[in-house]
Amino acid sequence: MAPRRKKIYEGKAKVLYEGPEPGTLVQYFKDDATAFNAQKKATIEGKGVLNNRLSEYFMTGLTNIGVPNHFIRRLNMREQLIRQVEIVPLEVIVRNFAAGSISKRLGLEEGTPLPRPIVEYSYKNDALGDPLVPEEYIIAFGWANQQDLDDIVSLALRVNDFLSGVFYGVGIKLIDFKIEIGRVWDGDFMRLIVADEISPDSCRLWDIKTNQKLDKDVFRRDLGSLTDAYSEVARRLGVLPTNATNIKPTLIN
């Protein structure tokens, strides 16, 4: 019997385990769904399988166009091997259309096209509700320096160009998304790479013709089956696992 792997970290949607080689981790995708800073929770069977496959698809695509990221390979239906990184304590948000918090802050109707992609940052801290922070705070508190921020914006906009094109090709509008960025060292040289995941958990996705929501807003706003929405995204992209259909949510009190 293989020895039990050492758990490194557990978040709301994923667990990180010690990897088989130095500098690697195993990322396990859970079936848990959360919203409103985990005030709303459910277990949705098969969600982790879908997100594992979808994140593999997007990270592989980024690798193919030269955008550095932590993905190495998928191990099985729920796990992937990734590079170990030091996470920059920011969520990097890219918005193409108004939705969610920016609509509330600025009184914009959801779906309003923005003049250009807008990059925002929130400080990764669940206890504080991941507050939005300006660049001045980020630099002052040492979370990243100006060169880091320039590199992060460049990475984020390249990811946006790639994802927007991929989704548009299958009839989906990329409203917004968030990514995390990690630091890796090659000797004394540090570079920034895309980390965490890219999936419908971290993107707002609307059908181009109907504006039907195909992302976690389905769960947040009780708009139907989250599994059906994620499965539709995977089906259009051609990455739907055959055993991830007909799966039901189980609500947690």
TrEMBL record:
CDD domains for the chain: SAICAR_synt_PurC
The UniProt catalytic activity note for this protein reads: 5-amino-1-(5-phospho-D-ribosyl)imidazole-4-carboxylate + L-aspartate + ATP = (2S)-2-[5-amino-1-(5-phospho-beta-D-ribosyl)imidazole-4-carboxamido]succinate + ADP + phosphate + 2 H(+)
Q: In which pathway does it act?
A: Purine metabolism; IMP biosynthesis via de novo pathway; 5-amino-1-(5-phospho-D-ribosyl)imidazole-4-carboxamide from 5-amino-1-(5-phospho-D-ribosyl)imidazole-4-carboxylate: step 1/2
The record's listing under InterPro entries reads: SAICAR_synt/ADE2_N, SAICAR_synt_PurC, SAICAR_synth, SAICAR_synthetase, SAICAR_synthetase_CS
Broad class of enzyme this protein falls into: ligase
Q: Where is the SAICAR synthetase/ADE2 N-terminal domain?
A: 7-236
A molecular function annotated in GO for this UniProt entry is: phosphoribosylaminoimidazolesuccinocarboxamide synthase activity
- Indicate the family of this protein: Belongs to the SAICAR synthetase family.
Q: This protein is called what?
A: Phosphoribosylaminoimidazole-succinocarboxamide synthase
This protein's gene is called purC
